[in-house]
Amino acid sequence: GDSVTQMEGPVTLSEEAFLTINCTYTATGYPSLFWYVQYPGEGLQLLLKATKADDKGSNKGFEATYRKETTSFHLEKGSVQVSDSAVYFCALSVEDDKIIFGKGTRLHILP
Amino acid sequence: EAGVAQSPRYKIIEKRQSVAFWCNPISGHATLYWYQQILGQGPKLLIQFQNNGVVDDSQLPKDRFSAERLKGVDSTLKIQPAKLEDSAVYLCASSFAGEETQYFGPGTRLLVL
Questions:
Q1: C-alpha triplet B4, B5, B11: angle, nearest 5°
Q2: Would you tell me which residues 36-75 of chain A have a C-beta closer than 8 angstroms to some C-beta of chain B?
Q3: Residue A96: what pLDDT?
C-alpha cells in the first residue's frame, strides 16, 4: 500500500547549520507530497507541498523537491534557527484527499 | 480567521470508562477528519466526514469508537469503553471539499490508566 518513510530522529544541530531530513514514499498513483510541522504544544501545520514531479515547495526558508525518479521529497534548510525546533512529518495524499503520514522526525536546534 | 477548535485539551480516564472529544472545524470547511496519533508515530486517519456523511471509517475500531457530525459542522468522537492502548493524541482537521490541504486543531491528549 501507499506509505511514507522518513529518517528517524532526533536530529540535533547547532544554529545556522544546514538541515536535511530524508523522506521517501511508495504510492500506486501520482500523489501530492507534503511536509507538516508540529511545534511544541501546537497542532500540525502545513509547511510546504508539491503536487507533481519536479515541483519545489518552499516556505520559511525550507525547501523540498518532488523527485519522481527517486520517489523522494527531502526537506532542506540552509541555516536553521532555534525556533525551528519541532517535529516534522512527511506525508502524501492520494485519492479522496486522504493523507498518509510518516512517523515524524524530531529536530532540536542548539543555540 | 479562527482555526480548528478542539476540547478538552487533556483527559485522563481509567480503562473501561468512556470519553468524548469535540471538534469545531474552520467555518465553511465541508470535510472533517479525526486522526489518532500514538506517541512516536504519525497521525492515523480514523474517520473522514463530508458534511454530515461518512466518507471513510475503515480504520475506526467500531466496537468501541463512534463519531458523528449531525449538522455538518462540529463533530464528536467517543470511545466506550476505553483501553490502555487508546492513550494517544486525537487530532481533528478540516478542509474545503476537494482541497488537499488540511488544517489541524491542537489535539486532545488522552491518557488511559
A1: 135
A2: 36, 41-46, 49, 51
A3: 65
Q: How distant is the Cα of B107 from the closest Cα of chain A, in angstroms?
A: 6
- The torsion angles phi and psi of A96, rounded to 5 degrees, stand at 65, 20
- Mapping DSSP onto H, E and C, the string for chain B reads CCCCEEECCEEEECCCCCEEEEEECCCCCCEEEEEEECCCCCCEEEEEEECCEEEECCCCCCCCEEEECCCCCCEEEEECCCCHHHCEEEEEEEECCCCCCCEECCCEEEEEC
Residue B66 near residue B45, CB atoms below 8 Å:
no
pLDDT digits 0-9 by tens, A21-48:
999 999 988 899 999 999 988 889 999 9
Q: What is the DSSP letter of A52?
A: S
Per-residue confidence (pLDDT) for residue B40, from 0 to 100:
85
